[in-house]
Amino acid sequence: MDIHKTKYIAVRIFRFTSALALFTAISSLSNKTSYFTAQRMTTEVSEDVIRAIHIILSVLAYHSFLRMFIITDSAVRCDFCDSQAKMLRYLASSSEVKISFIITVVFFLIFPNAFAVKSVYGWLEIPKAYVYIICASAFLVTFVLTWFEGLRNLKKTQEKIRKEKSKSKDISHLIKYIVSSCLAYPIMAYLLPIFFPTFRTLPQVAVMICLVFLPLVIALILFFNIFAYLRAFIIRFKFLRNLKKAAIKNGYVLSKIAHPYSSLFVDHDERSFTIIANGKEYDCKLLSGLHYGDPMYFEEEGRGKIIRRFTFKYRSLRAAPFSQSGTIWHKLSDDLAQFHTDFTYAFDGEGTKVLIVSPTPHTIYAAGYGQNKLLDVNDKVYGYTLMTGTAFINALERDAVR
Questions:
Q1: Number of C-beta neighbours around residue 278 at 10 A
Q2: Which of 36, 42, 201, 366 is the most exposed place for a label (fewest CB within 10 A)?
């Protein structure tokens, strides 16, 4: 074996062994911390609750420590980005993934209690072989999801480095992640039993979450989405009204508009309308960027996606001494979660094909060839002309639609 390859594998073994060692230590410490808190409380806390806390924190800690060693590994980042392989194919063939999997299995067999085997066994009271299968399955799913999320982060980091022509400070980031995680999980393990002094059993906790917490979260999500839907409806209504007025005023021939409002929420394959203006025919399709902050990506082969990111923001003092506000918003470097909405923009037409995004998100990209290109009004994207509602009407009046 080549000496460079041997060194590369040795470094990966050391890194992932360090990640699992830290996870094992923090998972065990967190479990002991929860018992320490429960024993010193005046109100009794069920041992089922302590076990549930350990199960949840052990899965989260495994994800955190494995992820932090993935996303701060510049060699893995270069290997993945240079290979240009799909995530699933890379997971199946990568030596780094295999090494981390083997090390996880070794630690699982040597330190099963760090993987919550004892907690699950005491909670379910079933044969231990089944407990091992349940825990192994849960951590296998976590392993795969962590690598998927880590590869997505690696790709995003590589694009940022290439765009800004800068170097990623992987070591400093890794130290920061280790310190924060090593502090966060024991602190959570200490505090969580304090929040459950009135619950004697785990089913009571589950009932409270299902009957109170989840309905409240769902209600809040619906409440805030109503405003987004109402805003989208108003923007689309104003555009269609102004389009019809412009057609009457300038003598355009406007066809019937298909799915004028349902296309805000539902993907349709066919064109929305055709308009003949200045002796030219334009076949148009209405697209919708419901949330202003969610970027839209046009991909090849007539498909696209909208990404909704959930991140954590915090305030800090402004560096600028003469700023009007004393604080500024910052975001964490990575998202808490993402939701992708796929849509189809391709359609058949004989005239100039126009994509009208109404309402319009803040940013729209053409995705392809391993990079994203920021688009503007009247740009061409895979043979289609990109427009906003107002820009399309103005461009028709100036005969400037390309």
A1: 14
A2: 42
